[in-house]
Amino acid sequence: VPLQQEQAPVVISFPGELVSQRSDVELAxxxxxxxxxxxxxxxxxxxxxxxxxxxxxxxxxxxGLKETGQLDSPTLDAMRAPRCGxxxxxx
Amino acid sequence: xQTFQGDLKWDHTDITYxxxxxxxxLDASIIEDAFQRAFKxxxxxxxxxxxxxxxxxxxxxxxxGTEEHGDGYPFDGKDGLLAHAFPPGKDRFSGDAHFDDDExxxxxxxxxxxxxxxxxxxxxxxxxxxxEGKSYSTCTTDGRSDGLPWCATTASFxxxxxxxxxxxxxxxxFDGNSDGAKCVFPFxxEGKSYxxxxxxxRTDGYRWCATTDNFDQDKKYGFCPTRxxxxxxxxxxxxxxxxxxxxxxxxxxxxxxxxxxDGKLWCATTSDYDTDKxxxxxxxxxxxxxxxxxxxxxxxxGLEHSSIQDALMxxxxxxxxxxxxxxxxxxxxxxxxxxxxxxxxxTRRPDVPTRRPNVPTQRPDVPTQRPDVPTQxxxxxxxxxxxGEDGSVTESTPVxxxxxxxxxxxxxxxxxxxxxxYLFKNGQYWKKPAAGMGxxxxxxxxxxxxxxxxxxxxxxxxDKLTKKLFFFSGQRFWVYQGTRVLGPxxxxxxxxxxxxxxxxxxxxxxxxxxxxxxxxxxxxLDAKAERVDQGYPKRTDDVFSGVPLDSxxxxxxQGKYHFCRNPFCWRMTPQYQVDKVGYLKxxxxxxx
Lengths: 91, 592
Hints:
Chain A has 4 helices and 1 strand, in the order H-H-H-H-E. Chain A has 91 residues and is mainly alpha-helical. The longest helix of chain A has 15 residues, at 48-62. Chain B is α+β, with helices and mostly antiparallel strands and 592 residues long. In chain B, 11% of the residues lie in helices and 26% in strands.
């Protein structure tokens, strides 16, 4: 008899939700770009992880978070927090 | 704090504003009051005045909108981006402040429901309230046959009988062209009949209705106020939860977070989500329009985001019940506009320890201390001092004993030498124990202790490794080792270019190294070699982000970096986080 597996909670896509439930990396990339920590060219330039890490550090320093350069939970929480739409870096 | 590139600011102080539209979430009078209070936050500490104009050209246009609302910077539905504003200028949107109307706008602690008619003179609903023995936390239509939602304005309707009617389209509309007339249902729009408010015919999601039975004919309309029980965001904002509803074949009789990974509560706005897919977020505490507006108006006046978490201009929203403008915000706005004649800025932060009352003015020759003031016992802390071989300071004569460090308007230089903080000004210096609440000693004559020095010392520090004392004045520097002195020599000898007119301050970096600052750049000095390291200068704000680049005093004190511009000091941890902005006099010197 197969073991009964615990059911994972179902997460669905809600229609009309402007910010759909993105992956963490997608969220971070969007956030870092939107608020001026990451330039479009830096993403397409192929810097990959290194580029994101340095932008993350910049963001963490600016927002008073621990500078890990990692997409850790306090950083993700900060990215999901309600805030002003004016960029932090640049005009 | 930060200002926009080029220090954008208004060229006049009598700023005008106009409220172009209103949110359905709050009564217009509450919105106007929130904006007025938000402007007052800034006018209290500057010479700025703010006048609301109904028409004509104004400096700051305020509007609510959703998603793309005409400026190319779309909002993103509920939560996330709350608002934005443009810096001062002469462009189309300059100074304007926009608020995302997919948010639930409140005063930060849940629905603010103003009542109409009834017998409570427009008082706010009191939640919860008791009606016929049952507790209500929202407006209700119970007890009425006309479907009008109402609430009690005290804790118990049963006892006090005071009540009013809650915002609903059955009572009034706002904006539009009907002077607040209520909706007429059913009404006809483009040949179709409507029994409730609709978003049809609009791209901004606002719910509207006709105020006659035929819009096609009369063109009379208004916007529907948000009921306190309405949902936000989703695909049916402004509508109400329908309980019970079915979701993935389960029945729900209350808001749920099922189906979501973010834990937000939602409900269906029809009885069957699986079929109709209509939903929205359940009412929550909402965002304080006052706090968000005060932040946005900071942008409208020329402030960028601050990196101080407690500052109003920090980019994240945080509700605070007892709002006070942070000293960083005050410093920022006064940098642009100067100080005003309003109430004294800024209010002391809660994390600042309260000064003990009645600590007497420090005089170097006063032997008696209050019982709670630690008495100075070490030689180094005595009034008379000169430089010892190990860099300790002994023997000098007090001058002008009535001169009070707390009354000095900005110091030339500040530095910690061994266990004392030294403050230099015009040929004199004061010193204060770096630990505890000891009194300030001085003034003492600089030349009595260090005869080779000029009256004005711009910066000073003691190297921990060599015990050398470095003093800087203009483009010259002196090095004291005990009573031996070398100097004056040009700072060019250190490897600093000749176009640097002075050193503003110094931070010791471990043993044998120190950072010398001039405006937006700094050098690392090797104290033993008496040369700056290769690769310098570097840009100050690359590492020391969030401190003023025109700091007058830069020094290490109690293990933390301090960047001071009279009267404020930005304190930074060795991890380069600004953890406090306070006053040099009150927070560091502990002046009464």
